[in-house]
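ok, trying the design again with the full structure, not the truncated one.
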């Protein structure tokens, strides 16, 4: 089953990679696959609930876009309208689990929690830190959403069987390395960038994937009053609302060398 999945991912990676190189096709490809990837997850987290207990300090989350368990946590953060500082931790390679050499934030997680595992949440308001998406989600609801009711589609999306199926299909739609899966060497901005987002808004997700791939930390705002997909870079004094413009800007401004070039056929093959 795993081998079949990897073959399908490798084929889609090659096919989508060719489409992505055609300028007229790339925007359509991205919007379509992003739209359906959100639909598969029932757009869980796209609505906003306002808790009576808002944290005074921003939560800290070490995660990466290609991780389905991280997605579960981001859906909950988005739904509860909790702002968080994201420290992106894309993989260095598909060949070896837990490999660390050049990653910007993966070694930090290992030092803090003694494991290279994601997501990893730190709450400076309660001095608590934890792994395991289900534990994090339960904590967030208990601490910041106790007075709120979980929406029906959110509950369905979090069922274990549906999560497994939807994560599998989601992965087929967004399989390219630069979609928050493998790192692209970059320079670190002096000030944190800021992104206003709904979890499954295509524009916001496209920008999050770029930020993740480039290992650029940023403040992720879940504010119902602001336009999702707005990117602010205080280092350059820029505010952008176009995902295409934002992604192009991020790679041109911060990328220093090529993204790791690997196929899913390399998965687990530590040559």
């Amino acid at each position: 089953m795993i081998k079949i999945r990897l073959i399908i991912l490798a084929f889609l990676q090659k096919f989508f990679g060719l489409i992505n190189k055609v300028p007229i096709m790339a925007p359509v490809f991205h919007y379509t696959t992003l739209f359906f990837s959100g639909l598969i997850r029932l757009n869980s987290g796209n609505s906003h609930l306002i808790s009576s207990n808002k944290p005074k300090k921003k939560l800290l989350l070490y995660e990466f876009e290609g991780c389905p368990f991280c997605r579960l946590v981001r859906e909950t953060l988005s739904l509860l309208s909790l702002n968080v500082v994201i420290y992106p931790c894309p993989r260095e390679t598909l060949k070896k689990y837990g490999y660390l050499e050049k990653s910007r934030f993966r070694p930090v997680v290992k030092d803090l929690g003694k494991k290279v595992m994601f997501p990893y949440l730190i709450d400076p308001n309660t001095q608590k830190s934890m792994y395991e998406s289900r534990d994090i989600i339960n904590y967030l609801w208990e601490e910041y959403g106790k007075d709120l009711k979980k929406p029906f589609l959110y509950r369905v999306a979090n069922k274990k069987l549906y999560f497994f199926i939807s994560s599998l299909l989601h992965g087929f739609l967004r399989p390219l390395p630069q979609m928050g899966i493998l790192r692209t060497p970059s320079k670190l901005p002096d000030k944190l960038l800021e992104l206003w987002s709904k979890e499954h808004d295509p524009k916001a997700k496209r920008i999050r994937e770029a930020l993740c791939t480039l290992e650029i930390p940023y403040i992720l705002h879940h504010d119902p009053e602001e336009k999702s997909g707005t990117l602010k870079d205080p280092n350059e004094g820029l505010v952008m609302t176009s995902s295409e413009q934002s992604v192009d800007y991020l790679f041109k401004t911060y990328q220093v060398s090529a993204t790791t070039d690997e196929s899913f056929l390399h998965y687990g093959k530590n040559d």
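Keeping the full-length input from now on. Residues 2-20 form the longest helix (19 residues).
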